[in-house]
């Protein structure tokens, strides 16, 4: 599959914060304050923490959490991590936690004018763009593709296509609030970009096919258009197999 129209971002990390409900804006503002504006998603989740062990007989009680995931360059990683940790007071028991995941590559819509400016500047793209943008192919050693798409039905069509055309069954989607990679440009100073409803889709793919399927998803979902979403690839240590029972009818469009 041709990759001539796909720009690959490398040296990118995914920072994920799991915090008490109501702290998402604190996290996003703290990230923006240190220049992390490459894109973010957030969603609600159920979890347990130190402070929730206050129920009858000390039994852990489920509590609603917010999960915020932010893309950052390798140069930004430690600075953003430290700022988020301090901003959310994560040293307080039960407040939340933060984790970092290295990504093999990331792709999204980048205006041609920006790419040309980077090419003509003679600078390393990570310095010029703070996104560690490189137009090189990297050989993936992974089996997990994650993509965030507009909430317009694209994710349903894509999951169906992965099943019918590529026999990929290990996929699921959830609704999130997302902020686009270039949203910062359209935002007034001192304000956070307005989040929009998006679909986050996790797909487990065979390691040997990860590179081809990454490009397939990018093109099939038309991610390379303005506000078309983002896709990233990351390593999995192990993943179990999954198959539908033989007597279960296939879902129709």
Question: How do the helices and strands line up, and which of them pair or pack?
Answer:
Blueprint: E1 12-20, H1 24-33, E2 40-47, E3 63-73, H2 77-87, E4 96-103, E5 105-108, H3 112-121, H4 125-129, E6 144-150, H5 154-166, E7 171-179, E8 196-204, H6 210-220, E9 230-234
Antiparallel strand pairs: 1-3, 1-4, 2-3, 2-7, 5-9, 6-8, 6-9, 7-8
Helix pairs in contact: 1-2
Widest β-sheet, arrangement of strands: 4-1-3-2-7-8-6-9-5
| Portion of residues within helices | 10-25%
Radius of gyration: 19 Å
Topology order in helix (H) and strand (E) letters: EHEEHEEHHEHEEHE
Sheet/helix structural class: alpha+beta
How many DSSP-defined strands? 9
State which percent range the strand residues make up. 25-35%
Q: Biggest β-sheet: count, sense, barrel?
A: 9 strands, antiparallel
Oligomeric description of these chains: single chain
CATH architect. name: 2-Layer Sandwich
Could you report the average pLDDT, rounded to the nearest whole number? 78
Low-pLDDT parts are 124-142
| SS field, number of helical segments | 6
Query: Ends: how far apart?
Result: 27 Å
Given the C-alpha coordinates, what overall shape results?
Answer: globular
CATH topology: Alpha-Beta Plaits
What is the count of distinct domains? 1
Name of the level-1 CATH class: Alpha Beta
Features:
24% helix, 253 residues, single chain, 9 strands, nine-stranded antiparallel beta sheet, alpha+beta, Alpha-Beta Plaits
């Amino acid at each position: 599959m041709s990759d001539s129209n796909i720009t690959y971002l490398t040296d990118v990390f995914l920072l994920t914060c799991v915090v008490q409900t109501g702290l998402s804006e604190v996290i996003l503002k703290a990230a923006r304050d240190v220049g992390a504006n490459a894109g973010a998603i957030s969603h609600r989740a159920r979890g347990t923490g130190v402070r929730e062990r206050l129920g009858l007989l000390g039994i852990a009680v489920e509590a609603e959490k917010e999960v915020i995931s932010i893309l950052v360059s390798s140069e930004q990683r430690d600075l953003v991590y430290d700022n988020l940790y301090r901003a959310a007071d994560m040293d307080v028991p039960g407040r939340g936690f933060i984790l970092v995941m290295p990504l093999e590559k990331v792709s999204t819509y980048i205006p041609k004018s920006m790419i040309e400016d980077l090419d003509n500047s003679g600078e390393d793209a990570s310095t010029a763009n703070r996104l560690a943008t490189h137009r090189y192919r990297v050989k993936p050693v992974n089996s997990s593709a994650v993509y965030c798409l507009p909430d317009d039905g694209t994710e349903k069509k894509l999951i169906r296509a992965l099943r019918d055309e590529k026999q990929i069954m290990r996929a699921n989607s959830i609704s999130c609030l997302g902020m686009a990679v270039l949203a910062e440009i359209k935002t007034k100073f001192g304000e956070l970009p307005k989040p929009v409803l998006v679909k986050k889709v996790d797909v487990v793919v065979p390691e040997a096919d990860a590179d081809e399927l990454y490009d397939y998803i990018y093109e099939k979902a038309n991610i390379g258009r303005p506000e078309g979403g983002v896709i990233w690839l990351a390593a999995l240590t192990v993943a179990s197999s999954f198959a539908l029972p033989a007597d279960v009818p296939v879902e129709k469009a």
